[in-house]
Amino acid sequence: MQDLINLFRNNIRQYGMIIALVLITALFWVLTEGIIFKPLNITNLILQNGFILVLAVGMVLVIITGNIDLSVGSVVAFVGAIAGVLMINNNVPVLLAIVLSILVGALIGVWQGFWIAYIGIPSFIVTLAGMLIFRGLTLYLLDGQSLAPFPDSFGVLSGGFLPDISSSGELHILTIILSGILSLVLVYMEFKNRKTQLQYNFEVVPMWITITKLALLVIVINWFAYQLALNKGIPMVLIIVFVLIVIYTFVMNNTVMGRHIYATGGNKKAADLSGIKTKRVVFWVFVNNGVIAALAGLMFASRLDSATPAAGNMLELDAIAAVFIGGASMAGGVGTVIGAIVGGLVMGVMNNGMSLIGIGIDWQQAIKGMVLLIAVGFDVYNKNKAGN
Amino acid sequence: MSDYILEMRNITKTFPGVKALDDVNLKVEKGEIHALVGENGAGKSTLMKVLSGVYPSGSYDGEIYFDQKECHFKDIKQSENVGIVIIHQELALSPFLSIAENIYLGNERQSKSIMKWQETFAESKKLLERVGLKDSPETAVMNIGVGKQQLVEIAKALSKNVKLLILDEPTAALNETDSANLLKLLNELKKQGITSILISHKLNEVSSISDSITILRDGQTIETIDTKEEKASEDRIIKGMVGRELTSRFPDRTAVIGETIFEVKDWNVHHPGQRDRKVIDNVNIHIRRGEIVGLAGLMGAGRTELAMSIFGKVYGKKITGSLHKNGEEIQANTVSEAIKHGLAYVSEDRKTYGLNLIDDIKRNITLSNLKRISSNSIIDENKEITEAQLLREKLNIKTPTLEQLAGNLSGGNQQKIVLSKWIFTEPDILILDEPTRGIDVGAKFEIYSQINELAAEGLGVLVISSELPEVLGLSDRIYVMNDGRITGELERGEADQESVMRYMTGSGGANNAGLN
Q1: Domain spans of chain A?
Q2: What pLDDT, on a 0 to 100 scale, did the predictor assign at position A10?
Q3: Fewer CB atoms inside 10 A, N or C side of chain B?
Q4: What is the ipTM of this complex?
């Protein structure tokens, strides 16, 4: 038991986040009388919040370098508008239009990254300007009107599901198989990791904690997959989010680039003196965030099946909130992709749950604001306590 | 005698693990200029912080009497209320505000929170006249030079009815004319009855202006010289400053010195902010394989600036001169180029320039040379652990695991991490800037052994240090810097504390001819 308490105490940041997610979910489970866990609603929750999760993945990198990006909401709208103009007005093939839209996102990143990294204008200012610039350009492109509808094949990006291997029965078989495979991979990796740690004489948690943790994880994943299988299976959105999590977690933890990003945010002067080209790091992180925002913009447009001038309004704040709820620090150097995802899920569950019980958009905003304040306040309180 | 304005009796101040002040006594007579001298780290600043209340009453032992009354200052405000004002080396002026606003900052001329501008400017004008500054009080502070800013600070002190003015290295950033003006002003103020304590490394100033001189060494009062009774020559002061024993022992070593590995030729560097100010003035140095070269100098001599301008031109503007490795000229315009050429620089400020305190030990060690543990940009974490483990054992870094955050370790262990980090880059030339600042004796010895070992492996090592025993104990050869110039070069045999200190304070001997 003492092990468990120590484990919790040393990782209060990570576990606190997950516990908050569990508590909030439980709260809405009670308040919505279980509707939140209905298969249809779980699918909806993913479809509604997928692009927040995607944006959070890009945003966490920006915030780890000690910067901020306020422009992503406008970039979402602008890229949607570009896609609309290409596909609807000019009949450009869907795939080509997607590639071009992503390219536009990258160019936006180049533009903002240039001013921030090489000219030295604070990211807050550059992206605040970007927020206005790209919203304005969206209005110009769309002439203040919505463009609709997109070609059907574009809808797959937000509304598509993984096809099943057999069309028989109520249950989506492929979903069950994939979640089984994922469970096995997780178990294998955890034990491999443990073995390496033992090999290098690292302190490891007791076996029973590892097993309990894995058991809980496997149960949650499979229960979740089972619910999805009862509906239409795995949505495309979930696949996109999952792939992004895997790629970016790997980049941040296992590559030289990831190290350079953490080092730049953790202590820029020391990173400079270690031969890291911190300007280049910041530049590429913004280019990356442009690409991610473009991807989210495409998902958003696909979901609405139209390009609208108001798309993505205030979305940057949801993404930023998700990252901070997920344990990142304003000063940079701290934060994880998984944390940002958990933070995004907290926001998502609240959006969904509050809509289900009929709380108006007015109180939704206020309550989300309070949650952000409390989450970060808790974090700061813990850090101060540890400091003394 | 009862005309002491200030008496500090038996002041003792300890920080965790270090006794910064040990039973210090300081007596200052009313209306005199009292100089406080000592090496870097002798305890001068700490003593003044105790006096001004930066370290509040209760955090130290001993008594302070000001105007015959015992004082217990809890903060700076309280010491200012009785008339003690300290002017720090880094001036505390707000650059965008006017001279007048700065003078009355925190002490505004007001009536019910509404600024009285007329009075502010009129009173400022009078104060500026007293310090001999002719600029308009409406000028923004950023538009006047450092020398004048110093005068604004003094005017600010006068506005608070100062009785005891403390100046910490007031002339360090000033040119000759400004320094002379400032010293003249101090004499003027003395005639008006204001007592001053002057902290300075410039011994010619000290010996020409002060009425008495207190010498501190290793947190203890060594002596107070009354210049009315005894003429205090620079040599006399130096003798008091350096009489330190070689307490921290140095590991034995037989140097095997090879050919010249690194050379800096005709090196000139200008200040990044004040471009017409030369920080490094025509420096020529060389380091040989297997040699430990010391670089001595007082604070502000330009040692760190020299090192950081060599290391990828991190410091300075308008840098001219050339670097040579094994006889061939090399270009090192960025840090990564410098690292590629086998240069390594261990900064004096490990927390700001050396470590990412919120990351763990192994990641800090490998940061400068991730290539060594990665293929195709993907890091092999097992290799990272193995390599970091080797260095941890080699340098005896005391930590439960390599995953401990660097910020949680003691100074000595942090220093070992920074050293490991640069050993990990497999350098040929290692520059160490104050490698043992603020760490305990045991860790010092370990770091000295490590330095010796690296030299024995054939590296050229340059050690910058303010501690004379360290420079003398470690080095095969010593360069001494003063005011951006190399003022002396001494072989191990011919160097002693007094000769080095003489070059450091710029009162050098005749044998520096041909060096510049």
Answers
A1: 2-160+235-387
A2: 66
A3: N
A4: 0.84
